[in-house]
Design a protein that fits this description.
nine-stranded mixed β-sheet, alpha/beta, Amidohydro-rel, Adenine_deam_C, single chain, 2 domains, Metal-dep_hydrolase_composite, 26% strand, TIM Barrel, adenine deaminase activity, EC 3.5.4.2
Length: 579
């Protein structure tokens, strides 16, 4: 009962008692100028809140004000809490720390990727974490992935029919996808199509992943069940998706900061209907969020001339309607969850005060620590404990071709012409030793990486798509040192030089995430970026480079658990080596 219903019967009776004066509201927002999305206008009202729910919006004042916190909101403006419809809350930060940071900036509802939960936790522990996250002021919903986004060794087990069915049936799961494996679907994967059918039967949405898709492909995917896509990179691609009936998430992220151009393009194309549009930051690295989360996207939209109400609607009621929860989220009206942002002006979306589930997470510009801590050990997210050793014998690099970086995330094959049998590569070129090794020490794949850096001596990272260990560097001795130091701190990212660690980010949660608040992670990440830039890393986001080395939804060649993988031809070029 507690999980299936948002409020128990006794709570609903109490909400009615507040209207009748038998109980007092817990918070009263008087003289509020608020965004009424039904009338598409700013209206004045008094907003009564009892615990985590808005129980009345209108002209009346409560007959009972005993123990009620009354706030005069004259001169301020109130909008619903913002909704992030497409979060990847495992980019060194964790779902709890991201939600705490986002809520303080007005993003109080988050729909989260479940990939890391599926790959690294068993179902019981994953569902326990999702249950415990209900206790925080932010509202957390989830996706159900249908494919691993890479070539893993036990895909049939991890993405079995029974597993997918359990996830789809979970009350906190609102959608299937994102469909990074859509080429398999088009090629005839009926199991994935069955899962889409099941999601639709349960009135849940399907999130696409269709970068560069033609109009015909978009139409086919709509026929097969897709509802939304976040991969439009031009106004024309936004138009094509809208024409085929999609809801479109406009993206502004650390590797695709596209929103200003998308809005300019849409203006050029005469797109002035915004009801099928939403905003997403698509799981950006922590430093990207210095300027805010969804609030920074609203600000950009307003600066680009989008009508103010439409800018707020794209962050609130539009995603709420899309995900079929507008009866409790995305709107300031009787019966909704009390997620409210109090603004200093209509044009400034970063709130001065934030209520999330009726709790203050920010008050008059001051952040309030209202997020209860989690015991991460309960979910199996302890520090990484590797019971095996990396040896010099593992550091053998004889593959005839390597991986060349085209940008932060796109990699192509290239012919290796340098001598790679030595222990130290020259700093005169941008080629490094490169290895992916099983976190359990059972297999490895060794090659050469071109274009990552020219002076990086050694780096080890337990952060990767699959949680396996990435090793990069010019010096085998420094690669070994980085690995041993990473092992010593229980997982993380370590950069070494002259067999001394010069930069490290501990990732105590399974070697994948840190417990640090986002503000502290930003400083640690910036130090890592600075160290890598000084050693030749030329792109915008090394965290995403590490994440996507194994991601087979991107071209052209990837390093995976099964070996070197040709994405376009869907084949293993060189298998991983058993140790």
């Amino acid at each position: 009962m507690e999980q299936r219903y948002r409020w128990k019967n006794k709570h609903l009776r109490e909400h009615v008692d507040v209207l009748d004066g038998r109980l007092s509201p817990t918070i009263l927002l008087k003289n509020a100028t608020y965004l009424n999305q039904t009338f598409r206008s700013w209206m004045k009202a008094n907003i009564w809140i009892y615990d985590d729910r808005i129980v009345y919006v209108g002209e009346k004042l409560p007959p009972n004000l005993v123990n009620c916190n009354t706030i005069d909101c004259s001169g301020q403006f109130i909008v619903p809490g913002y909704i992030e419809p497409h979060a990847h809350p495992f980019q060194l930060y964790n779902p709890h720390s991201f939600a705490a940071y986002a809520a303080g900036r007005g993003t109080t509802t988050i729909i989260n990727d479940n990939m890391s939960l599926v790959l690294h936790l068993n179902k019981k522990r994953a569902f326990l974490l999702m249950k415990d996250l209900r206790s925080i002021p932010a509202t957390m919903f989830w996706w159900c992935r249908f494919d691993p986004q890479t070539e893993i060794l036990n895909e049939e087990e991890v993405f079995s029919h029974s597993q997918i069915k359990s996830w789809l049936e979970h009350d906190a799961v609102l959608q299937g996808g994102e469909l990074t494996g859509w080429p398999k679907l088009l090629a005839g994967d009926d199991m994935m199509l069955h899962w889409i059918q099941e999601a639709k039967r349960m009135r849940k949405q399907i999130e696409g992943h269709f970068p560069g898709a033609s109009e015909k492909t978009l139409a086919k995917m709509m026929l097969l069940g897709a509802d939304c896509d976040h991969e439009a990179m031009t106004g024309e691609e936004v138009y094509d998706r809208l024409m085929q009936g999609y809801t479109v998430s406009l993206r502004h992220s650390s590797i695709r900061p596209d929103l200003p151009r998308l809005l300019d393009d849409m203006n050029r194309l005469g797109i002035t209907a915004y009801d099928q549009l939403m905003f997403t930051t698509d799981g950006s690295s922590s430093g990207f969020y210095k300027d805010g989360v969804i609030d920074q996207m609203i600000r950009i939209a307003i600066e680009k001339g989008i009508p103010v109400i439409d800018a707020y609607n794209m962050a609130t009621i539009n995603p709420a309607k899309y995900y079929n929860f507008a009866h409790i989220h995305g709107k300031i009206a009787t019966g909704r969850v009390a997620n409210l942002n109090i603004l200093s002006s209509m044009e400034e979306p970063c709130p001065v005060s934030v209520l999330a589930k009726g709790k203050w997470v920010k008050r008059d510009g001051e952040f309030i620590d209202s997020f209860p801590e989690l015991n991460w050990d309960d979910y199996g997210l302890e520090p990484l404990d590797l019971d095996w050793e990396l040896t010099e014998g593992d550091l053998q690099f004889s593959m005839p071709f390597g991986i060349q970086m085209e940008n932060a995330v796109i990699t192509k094959p290239y012919s290796v012409s340098i001598e790679v049998s030595r222990n130290q590569l020259s700093d005169s070129h941008d080629e490094c030793f490169f290895m992916l090794i099983d976190r359990n020490g059972k297999w490895r794949i060794n090659t050469i990486l071109k274009g990552f850096a020219n002076k990086l001596q050694g780096m080890a990272s337990s952060f990767s798509n699959t949680g396996d260990i990435i090793l990069i560097g010019k010096s085998k001795a420094d690669i070994l040192h980085s690995f041993n130091r990473m092992k010593e701190i229980g997982g993380g990212i370590v950069v070494s030089e002259r067999e001394k660690a010069i930069c490290e980010i501990p990732l105590q949660l399974g070697g994948l995430m840190t417990e640090l608040p986002l503000e502290e992670l930003m400083k640690a990440e910036e130090k890592l970026y600075e160290v890598l830039r000084e050693r030749g890393y030329a792109y915008s986001d090394p965290v995403y480079s590490l994440l996507f080395f194994s991601s087979t939804h991107l071209p052209y060649i990837r390093i995976t658990q099964q070996g070197m993988y040709d994405v376009m031809n869907k084949m293993i070029l060189f298998p991983s080596i058993m140790r």
